[in-house]
């Protein structure tokens, strides 16, 4: 009997842990093949491939993102392969199972909940006596009747074989995301989440977990996402795993879902001191900062402690943080959500994900939907459309905000510009993204695509339409961001007035003649801080660049870096930017690999948080490309004044 385990992933780079767990458990007794597709693949392509594989049994892992496309595949499969047994499993069909069996006559069985043992026993019965009433955790058909068996006790995780060691996965490990679990279950009871239904947390043996991770790293895995609902629920376990990953990462990146308000100070201290930059990513579900909302949905959260954790992690500069919000929770109207958004944005996450409440089958919130007058989509993903305090019109506006947030914040295309606008020109971050989102849709831009330069011209159009002050300063920051968005020297610019050729040559000669005067961002910040805090600021500035390598400022702004100004506060990690002089670039190299412009204000002053009113002056901005292994552009600045006339 040939068995195919299949699923439709959201993207090609994703992999399904679920079907690998099932195969690992049953492959000793059955011929099992994995077949992964995406929700973008044409149905006929999927059906044709499955048909040619010639299976007797096909199982599909079902989620809100793939259920409707999976149903289309099943309906066609049954027309051309009427004898094939179709099995569904996964969170989307583990609740309201009777509904699914009635809706989907082409489905023969549904495995409910944790599937390894149930699926294995079901295969034995399909191949054998077909006594399905012996299989706990199963829904099946008996003539016209639908039978639902009692649930199965939870498995001992350490008796389950590893799903990470299939030889056929090795060639793709470096190209795709590896999903990994060290535990199952969740200790919390959030009423909008399926994880709240399973009581308690079970762990795999930590030595087995370490062995599997080493196997994946040894075979080329580049990104491992831990699917544990709260990776840090056990302090000692999390700390031991963090230490192990730090010692053995070899360039692999690890992403975790953590609960920030229970993160222990000693764990944070350890990570701040020892975590390699860029190896860890934290996903933190904040969802709402509205206390009545959190209380109603049984979400225990201390936002003060959460903020402390997020801030400390950010100050280390070593771990990117992805914070999640959910619009549409009970008692969260448009105004309170504005506060939630601004509360969380103020923490400065690298990504802020704005999601909309999904009324998932089996959750307490869906069961109580009528209490709050929820309307929502009848089919997956069951997104809410309105409730008693948030209208559909509000949802539409928040969708516009979400669109611009993704394009202009989470993409990190204009960090300098957006930060300045939020700090200086708009009442709050929410107001900037909302006002821009409304303008974006009003221009009809949501109906057409965009190139990189379009993002800049459209932002300029929006800002000019509202009479934004100091557009010369905003445009200067936009130029900086535009230059930093390129891997190679850009061939075109989006602004109208470029430097004249003679001026360009003059400034380039000045840079070549005075290379030590061009400061990297790190040194520019350092000099700005020192000049504010030290009476001898000029001497500090000179010492920072006198050796021509700028190694006087270390990668980590620790106490030794700031001792010259008397500050003992640890500062965020910053990459070492080589001194411009140390690049030893000649005129030909600069012609090929550099761009420059003159900004009508003191850029270093603005980037260090100074007021536009005190940023008078001009800045020579020089950006060079292709000068490091990471292929990141490097930029340098030099304040310029009357001395430029002498060149």
Automatic annotation (TrEMBL):
SMART domains: Elp3. The keyword Manganese does not apply. Coiled coil: none annotated. The keyword Metal-binding applies. GO terms for molecular function: 4 iron, 4 sulfur cluster binding; catalytic activity; cobalamin binding; metal ion binding. It comes from the Bacteria. Residues 1-133 form the B12-binding domain. It holds the Pfam family B12-binding. One of its GO terms (cellular component) is cytosol. Residues 172-411 form the Radical SAM core domain. InterPro entries: BchE-like, Cobalamin-bd, Cobalamin-bd_sf, DUF4080, Elp3/MiaA/NifB-like_rSAM, Methyltransferase_Class_B, rSAM, rSAM_horseshoe. SUPFAM superfamilies: Cobalamin (vitamin B12)-binding domain, Radical SAM enzymes. PANTHER family: ANAEROBIC MAGNESIUM-PROTOPORPHYRIN IX MONOMETHYL ESTER CYCLASE-RELATED, SLR0320 PROTEIN. This is Fe-S oxidoreductase. It comes from Paenibacillus terrae (strain HPL-003).
């Amino acid at each position: 009997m040939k068995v195919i385990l299949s699923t439709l992933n959201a993207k090609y780079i994703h992999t399904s842990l679920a079907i690998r767990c099932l195969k690992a458990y049953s492959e000793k007794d059955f011929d099992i093949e994995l077949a992964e597709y995406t929700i973008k693949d044409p149905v006929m392509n999927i059906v044709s491939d499955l048909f040619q594989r010639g299976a007797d049994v096909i199982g599909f892992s079902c989620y809100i993102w793939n259920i409707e496309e999976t149903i289309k595949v099943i309906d066609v499969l049954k027309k051309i392969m009427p004898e094939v047994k179709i099995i569904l499993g996964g969170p989307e069909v583990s609740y309201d199972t009777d509904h699914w069996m009635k809706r989907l006559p082409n489905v023969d069985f549904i495995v409910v909940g944790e599937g390894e043992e149930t699926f294995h026993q079901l295969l034995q019965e399909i191949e054998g006596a077909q006594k399905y009433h012996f299989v706990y955790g199963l829904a099946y058909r008996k003539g016209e009747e639908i039978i639902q068996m009692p649930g199965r006790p939870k498995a001992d995780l350490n008796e389950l074989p590893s799903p990470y060691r299939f030889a056929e996965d090795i060639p793709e490990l470096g190209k795709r995301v590896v999903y990994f679990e060290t535990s199952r279950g969740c200790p919390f009871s959030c009423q909008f989440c399926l994880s709240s239904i399973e009581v308690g947390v079970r762990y795999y043996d930590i030595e087995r977990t370490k062995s599997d991770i080493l196997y994946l790293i040894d075979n080329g895995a580049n990104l491992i996402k831990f699917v544990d609902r709260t990776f840090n629920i056990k302090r000692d376990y999390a700390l031991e795993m963090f230490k192990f990953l730090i010692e053995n990462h070899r360039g692999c990146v690890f992403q975790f879902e953590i609960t920030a308000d229970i993160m222990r100070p000693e764990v944070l201290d350890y990570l701040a001191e020892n975590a390699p930059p860029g190896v860890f990513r934290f996903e933190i579900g904040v969802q709402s900062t509205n206390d009545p909302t959190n209380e109603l949905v049984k979400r225990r959260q201390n936002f003060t402690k959460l903020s402390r954790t997020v801030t400390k992690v950010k100050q280390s500069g070593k771990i990117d943080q992805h914070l999640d919000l959910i619009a549409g929770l009970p008692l969260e109207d448009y105004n309170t959500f504005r506060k939630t958004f601004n509360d969380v944005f103020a923490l400065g996450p690298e990504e802020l994900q704005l999601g909309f409440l999904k009324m998932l089958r089996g959750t307490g919130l869906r069961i109580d939907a009528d209490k709050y007058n929820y309307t929502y989509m009848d089919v997956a993903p069951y997104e809410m459309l309105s409730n008693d305090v948030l209208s559909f019109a509000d949802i539409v506006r928040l969708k516009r905000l979400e669109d611009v947030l993704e394009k202009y914040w989470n993409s990190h295309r204009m960090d300098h510009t957006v930060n300045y606008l939020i700090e200086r020109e708009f009442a709050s971050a929410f107001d900037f993204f909302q006002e821009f989102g409304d303008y974006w849709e009003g221009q009809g831009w949501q109906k057409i695509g965009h190139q990189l330069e379009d993002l800049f011209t459209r932002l300029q159009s929006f800002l000019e339409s509202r009479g934004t002050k100091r557009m010369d300063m905003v445009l200067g920051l936009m130029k900086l961001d535009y230059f930093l968005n390129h891997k190679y020297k850009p061939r075109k610019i989006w602004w109208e007035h470029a430097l004249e050729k003679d001026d360009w040559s003059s400034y380039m000669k000045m840079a070549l003649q005075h290379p030590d005067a061009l400061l990297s961002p790190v040194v520019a910040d350092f000099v700005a801080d020192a000049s504010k805090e030290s009476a001898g600021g000029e001497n500090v500035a000179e010492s920072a660049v006198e050796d021509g390598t700028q190694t006087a400022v270390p990668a980590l702004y620790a106490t030794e870096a700031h001792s010259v100004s008397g500050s003992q506060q640890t500062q965020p990690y910053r990459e070492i930017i080589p001194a411009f002089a140390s690049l030893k670039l000649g005129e030909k190299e600069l012609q090929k690999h550099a761009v420059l412009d003159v900004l009508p204000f003191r850029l270093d002053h603005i980037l260090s948080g100074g007021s536009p009113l005190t940023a008078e002056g001009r800045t020579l901005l020089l950006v060079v490309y292709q000068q490091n292994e990471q292929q990141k552009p490097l930029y340098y600045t030099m304040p310029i004044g009357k001395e430029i006339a002498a060149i």
